[in-house]
Amino acid sequence: MVTKDQRRRQLAREKFERQQQRRVQQRKRSTVRNAVIGGVVAVVAIGLVGAYAGGAFDSDSGKKKSDAANASPSVSASASPSAAAVKDPCAKPAAGKPGTQQWKKEPAQTIDKSAQYTFTLTTTCGAIPIALEAAKAPETVNSFDFLAGKGFFDHTKCHRLTTSGIYVLQCGDPTGSGSGGPGYTIGDENLTAFGKAGASGSVTYKAGTVAMANTGQKHTGGSQFFLVYKDSPLPPSYTPFGTITADGMKVLSKIASAGESTGQGDGAPRATVVINKARVTKS
Fold first, then answer.
1. Which of 89, 193, 181 is nearest to 137 (CA)?
2. Which end of the chain has fewer CB atoms at under 10 Å, N or C?
3. Residue 34's domain spans which residues?
4. For residues 54 and 95, what is the distance between their CA atoms, to the nearest angstrom?
5. Going by C-beta distance under 8 Å and a sequence separation of 6 or more, which residues neighbour residue 78?
6. What's the pLDDT at 87?
């Protein structure tokens, strides 16, 4: 017998997937428009449930992250603190704007798979260090090493917070719209990290996981990624490539506690979450 909670999660995943499909269509239209106007092809990574993550993290929580925002049953405003009651826990962003550089193909592999790498997000809410899994997701880690070295993530907003069904913060889009990317895509990796999917079609992405958002199709990751602040049921379709440290989880919890802007469980975070600087270091 399907419980109410299982049904709610199923609906949330289905909603997220629908949203992701809409984003894919929007990205296609945007690509055509950009090609006509400026000859620039923009590759979208909606993710996080941005996202299929919540049904929910296909390139847009950002997540998320299926289209959790479209498919899940309506969630009462109590799922997120009222705007009047929430004080922004984060500081003002540093001066600067997101970059606009794009690349036609992914970078050549240069990382050492046996080495330890840390991806540190210096945000307006605090530092979020992430231990990267170079051995299990070398293509993904290599791409983030390249993009961070180019300052790609600097001054970008984390544009999506999902607080119902799945629990993720989605970042990595320089446009802040859920449809931006670096101009190239990368392959899926490490999809068996949390075991095989059960009858629900999902596995549990554990709190502290950092995974890639995508368009809902295989091998369509770009630059968008999502940070899981609470265990979340998701299809094993999003490359897990890092783990947030304990100190980083405190910052992420602070962001999540402020809630999201719509009161429906899926929207822009109320906290001003901007990545002032992101860098990958080798140890």
1. 193
2. N
3. 4-70+112-282
4. 33
5. none
6. 87
Question: 19 in a domain, yes or no?
Answer: yes
Assigned token pair, 192: 């068996």
Count of structural domains within the chain: 1
- Where do we find the tokens 């809902």? 216
Q: Does some domain include residue 39?
A: yes
Q: What tokens does 218 get?
A: 């295989």
In DSSP terms, 282 is beta-bridged to 117
* Mean pLDDT, the chain, whole residue set: 82
For residue 68 the two structure tokens come to 């959790």
Q: Compute the distance between CA of residue 127 and CA of residue 125 in angstroms, rounded to an integer.
A: 7
For residue 86, the model assigns a pLDDT of 73
- Residue 278 belongs to a domain with what CATH number? 2.40.100.10
How confident is the model at residue 71, as a pLDDT? 29
State residue 57's pLDDT score: 59
- CA-CA distance, 164 to 9, in Å (whole number)? 9
Does any domain span residue 238? Answer: yes
What is the rounded CA–CA span in Å between residue 211 and residue 233?
13
Residue identified by tokens 């992250």 is: 65
Domain membership flag for residue 94: no
Residues lower than pLDDT 50 in the chain = 28-56, 60-80
Residues facing 232 on adjacent strands? 205
pTM of model > 0.70: yes
> Could you give the CA distance from residue 81 to residue 56 in angstroms, rounded to a whole number?
21
144-191 pLDDT, tens per residue?
Answer: 999 999 999 999 999 999 999 999 999 999 999 999 999 999 999 999
Burial class (CB in 10 A: 0-12, 13-18, 19+), 186: buried
